[in-house]
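Handout, section B. The chain below has 475 residues.
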Amino acid sequence: MEKSGGMREVVLYGIGGIGENISYNLFYMCFIFFLTSVAGIKPAAAGTISLIAVMWDAISDPIVGYLSDRCKGWKDFGKRGTFILFGAIPLGISVFLLYNDMPFSETGKVIYFIVINMLFWMFFTVVDIPYVSMATEVTENYDIKTKMRTSVMLFSNLGQLVLSFGILQFVDYMTNNGYAHVFAWRIIGAAMGCISTIAFMATAVAMRGKETRQSQTVQTDERLSQGQDRGRLFKDLRPLLKMRDYRVLLVIGFLYNFFLGIVNSSLLYYSLYGCGLTMAQSSIVQTVALLASLVFIIPMGGIIVKFGKKSVLLWSFVFMMIYSLLCGIMVPPMWMFTVMNIGLNLTSAVFWIDIYAMNFDVSEIYEFKTGNNREGLMVSICAFMTKIGVAVGMWLNGMLMTLFNVDPTSEEITEAMVTGMQKIFGIIPAIISAILVIVCMLYRVKKKHILALQEAKELKAAGKPYSTEGFEKVL
């Protein structure tokens, strides 16, 4: 079936990026800071809380992806939109609960935050996996899928602007006016939870009736028993993991988010201890960097379309390596740190545009080979790898802060804290970036392969002779 996918759909789809970014990055940027500086939990324990919750999330990710592939949808919201619609409110509530410091003992707090963290990731998965997969239900056009991911990043950075500027400025304002940190963070949790819910629900409503794909898999699988259905989930995983380019994407997703988990969770600490900035100055750096990078996101999407996903992603990883090395060997002044962070924000945009668009490409290869539509399952496994990467990065950050004597409760910034943050924020991420460059070179799928495959798929569907020439090496 020929699909729609004009500029209107591109923009409407992107709205959910606000909710995705706020719920996702509020966690990665602020959760460990909140646990250590507000809830009073030790850095190593704070990192472990995140790791345990995401390990548990291994159960929900592939299940949600698989179920959203087979869901018939409620009314005309479509199979992906139905998940988004009904998961958005529980997600917002869990965001609020995540930033509530309860009057428990430290052990009680650890248990509380593990449970709420698990609920947060479960509801985020219920909403986000179908949201990412929705792009393939709206259009088959190779370039429009990239534009839809670019639209997500544009709206996502608007959400990031709220986080980077609004939260730190709000905490600073509340503290200066005598309000307790606990109260300030409860307001933040409530506000960010509401915004996340509204953004996702707006996308579900706006994209109502836009999902035009009726998966062949749904129709045939309806006849299966529940036992057979559970067995198919594991049977579907095996051929997916045999695909070389898909395995490369999973490794890239893990390594990049391992980098991100360390960098995002230590950025505020590095700003305060490594660069000697105040919280207000750190907020200004991030806000200016975000505003500047917003200007370049749409052109960046055009660059990806023109030069190819792999090439632009590869050079982004090279920039990340240079960025990290500079932060590890010197103390950048405020203006230089701002410029560097503009580049880092753009590399993040490139990754999140590319990683799922590349998943869509590999899913087309899988569908050609097997005749089954498994975008949701494929996206869910990739998303799980990104979450594992971030969780391990955040956990490692907590462990390294303890190892290098970086004490967030200390009133004095020691030389050990400065050098420790340079190692955590600079040297270790530089090594990860170098490995990413090497792994990215192993990815083989290009636009010409997908275009040739789509042509062959149309001939195959029409019962006409077709050839795999032009894409045989990626099969």
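Note. The radius of gyration is 22 Å. Compare this with the example in section A.
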